[in-house]
Structure formats: C-alpha cells, structure tokens
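Input/output pair, single chain:
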Amino acid sequence: MDIELGKENGIDLALKVNEVTPYTQIIYITAYMQYVSDVYQSKHTYFIDKEKLDKYLPSAIKKAKENINHLKSQYLYISWNKQKNEVYQKDIIYIERKTRVSYVYTKKEVYKTSLKINELILLLNDSFCICHKSFIVHMDYIKDINHNSVQLMNQQIIPISRSQKEAFKKLYNRYLLTNK
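Output:
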C-alpha cells in the first residue's frame, strides 16, 4: 500500500480494509517519510521506505506470513450448509456432539458443523480438552470439577466419562500450572 494513491490516501484506504478484513496484512511502501507516524492510525505489518525496498521487503513478507499463521491458530474454521464460519477460539465455551452434528457454543451464538469431536480437537489450540466422547471444553471456562462432571462459568454442567477422567484431570492440572 502506498500512502499517496492519486486522489486517494493510502492510510484512509487501509482503515477501510481493516474494517472489512481485519486480518489483511498491510505493508506500506512509500517515499513519503512524513507519514511514518500517521500510518499508526491503521493496523499494518510494516512500513518501508521505497529507497530501502530491496532490503526490507523480504522481512516484511516474512512478518506478514507469521502474523497470518498466528491468526489461523486463534480461529476455528468450520462450515455448515455451505456457510463458512470463522470462530474465535477464545470465545468457544464448549463443543457438543449430538446425532451427527457438533454444536460449537460461544459467548454469543451456536455454530453447527459435521466435524466429529476427534476431528475438532485437532483444529483447536491447547486450551481445549475432551472430557467425554461427545464433549470438548475450553479450560478457561471451567468453574468447578466434580467427581463425574465439569461446571462451566455459564453454569452448564458437562459430563466427564470414566474413560477420559484421568487424562482430562492431568491435562487440566497442567493447563492450570502453565496458564493461570
């Protein structure tokens, strides 16, 4: 993105891009160094002086790729009835599998997917754990653990199966030690 684009201002255009697609990686390449502070109005990855393009462009592209990979690890990408959803993993409270459909419960809404529990857990970060063959819980939302159930912050009670109990408790204790 250049700063001066004819009649357009590159910073204003970048702000519009940020609104529509907040994950787009913007690299400013310009000869107008007086805008170096102004670009911070927008979310961007790099600012390069055109005279130093050869030197800094490879680093800027590497940084943009790292940002994209980091963002991918923060989202769960699922689809249902040809509708694709990008769900922020920190907002997922738990996932339940019922009659060939997995329901992803978030703070605001519920998403559906045909993916199975064992497929979903591979797409999630290490904040999630299977506590039952039909449930995945986000460990940040656990309020209490009883003998055979988990109570979540939203008061939802999730069962812990006998076969998962030991592994679940180990993972949860390790998670508490490293994340809280």
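Residues 3 and 9 are 6 Å apart (CA to CA). Residues 53-73 form the longest helix (21 residues).
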